[in-house]
């Protein structure tokens, strides 16, 4: 008896009193609201599940303490109106001194007038143009060497050298060691273009790397280029930047995040710039920011992002000094951006699902009640009118 009395009192705590089945009213409007609510709940729960299983990147900015680290640079640039023998690559620090402490793996690809590959070669020293440029300068009165095959004789063409060696029965050395053969090859390259691509590994210091014409050398404290051959040939520094990146970006997870986060793309990839004017100086001012990616699977990636502004100068129209070419001016931010990948907890996921279900049913109940009362009011009004 006491147990029955306790259960009766306990039932009074029920906040969800159930009406009898006979007094429940089911309407078409209520069924429509219920069906619509179910579709909305299912859709939102699916989005909540996707948000739970998809990691998110959370950025954090700290002071960069890795000033002594190396900077990998990867580039692929085409100069459609400049032959490879005229093109050189130089690296300079902030003070204007030539940077020699770097590693490179750079290639030059000769291109025909239509941009098709002719010949690929590795640039042994990209800081200096090949000696072919000076071989391009001819002197009508010169007496070319026969390289020991004939005494007191002139060999002014590649065929002359071949005949001289044939006359004495010597084997002809490689043509890339014979000046006359190089001259003839260079004259045939006048209408060619050049693609230069590869990788550099430099110290992370403010400076620039630039593509310029002619052989570079130090003159006192100045860094100068011999541009006489370039200006005499009528070429120009129109260029296409297929790719320019700083740091390692070959991580598959990074590539996926880079497509999702537009600010991580390399902004110069695919850009074109240039005119037919040979005295143009193209400058790209790069602000490079160190970036660190910490993935949820434990992988770690250290790379760099950059922003860019650019300008062009016609050296004929301005009194300032300069050099025709393409210059990339590097400046480094003292900040480090850390992207940490994380996923929400199961408790937060469960809370979100419950909030969706409870919220939708509550709103649906209010809407259904409002529609039911409006319907009953309309019916009563129609009954009085009759």
TrEMBL record:
- Give residue ranges for domain Endoplasmic reticulum vesicle transporter C-terminal: 146-368
What are the recorded Gene Ontology BP terms? endoplasmic reticulum to Golgi vesicle-mediated transport; retrograde vesicle-mediated transport, Golgi to endoplasmic reticulum
What are the TM regions of this chain, as residue ranges? Answer: 30-50, 346-372
User: What's one GO-annotated cellular component?
Assistant: COPII-coated ER to Golgi transport vesicle
Per the database record, which ranges form the Endoplasmic reticulum vesicle transporter N-terminal domain? 10-98
List the keywords (alphabetical): Membrane, Transmembrane, Transmembrane helix
The way it spans or sits in the membrane comes to:
Multi-pass membrane protein
Q: Where in the cell is it found?
A: Membrane
Q: Which Pfam families match?
A: COPIIcoated_ERV (PF07970), ERGIC_N (PF13850)
The family note in this entry says: Belongs to the ERGIC family.
Designated name of the protein = Endoplasmic reticulum vesicle transporter-domain-containing protein
Q: Which organism is it from?
A: Phascolomyces articulosus
């Amino acid at each position: 008896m006491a147990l029955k009395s306790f259960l009766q009192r306990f039932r009074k705590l029920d906040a969800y009193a159930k009406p009898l089945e006979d007094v429940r009213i089911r309407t078409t409007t209520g069924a429509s609201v219920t069906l619509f609510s179910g579709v909305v709940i299912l859709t939102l729960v699916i989005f909540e599940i996707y948000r739970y299983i998809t990691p998110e990147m959370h950025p954090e900015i700290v002071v960069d303490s890795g000033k002594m680290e190396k900077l990998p640079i990867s580039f692929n640039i085409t100069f459609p109106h400049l032959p490879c023998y005229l093109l050189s690559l130089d690296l300079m620090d902030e003070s204007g001194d030539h940077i020699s402490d770097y590693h490179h793996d750079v290639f030059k690809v000769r291109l025909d007038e239509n941009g098709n590959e002719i010949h690929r070669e590795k640039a042994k020293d990209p800081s200096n143009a090949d000696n072919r440029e000076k071989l391009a300068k001819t002197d009508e009165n010169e007496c070319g060497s026969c390289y020991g095959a004939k005494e007191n004789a002139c060999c002014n063409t590649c065929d002359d050298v071949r005949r001289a060696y044939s006359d004495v029965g010597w084997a002809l050395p490689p043509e890339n060691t014979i000046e006359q053969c190089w001259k003839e090859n260079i004259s045939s390259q006048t209408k060619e273009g050049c693609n230069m691509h590869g990788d550099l590994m430099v110290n992370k210091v403010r400076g620039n790397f630039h593509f310029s014409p002619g052989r570079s050398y130090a003159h006192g404290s100045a860094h100068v280029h011999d541009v006489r051959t370039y200006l005499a040939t009528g070429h120009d520094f129109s260029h296409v930047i297929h790719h320019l990146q700083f740091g390692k970006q070959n991580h598959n997870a990074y590539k996926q995040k880079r497509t999702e986060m537009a600010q991580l793309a390399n902004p110069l990839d695919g850009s074109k710039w240039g005119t037919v004017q040979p005295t143009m100086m193209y400058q790209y001012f790069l602000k490079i920011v160190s970036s660190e990616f910490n993935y949820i699977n434990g992988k770690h990636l250290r790379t760099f992002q950059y922003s860019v502004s650019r300008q062009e100068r016609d050296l004929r129209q301005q009194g300032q000094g300069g050099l025709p070419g393409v210059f990339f001016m590097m400046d480094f931010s003292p900040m480090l951006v850390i992207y940490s990948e994380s996923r929400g907890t199961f408790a937060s996921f469960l809370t979100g699902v419950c909030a969706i279900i409870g919220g939708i049913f509550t709103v649906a109940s209010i809407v259904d009640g409002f529609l039911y009362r409006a319907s009953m009011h309309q019916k009563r009004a129609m009954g009085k009118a009759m």
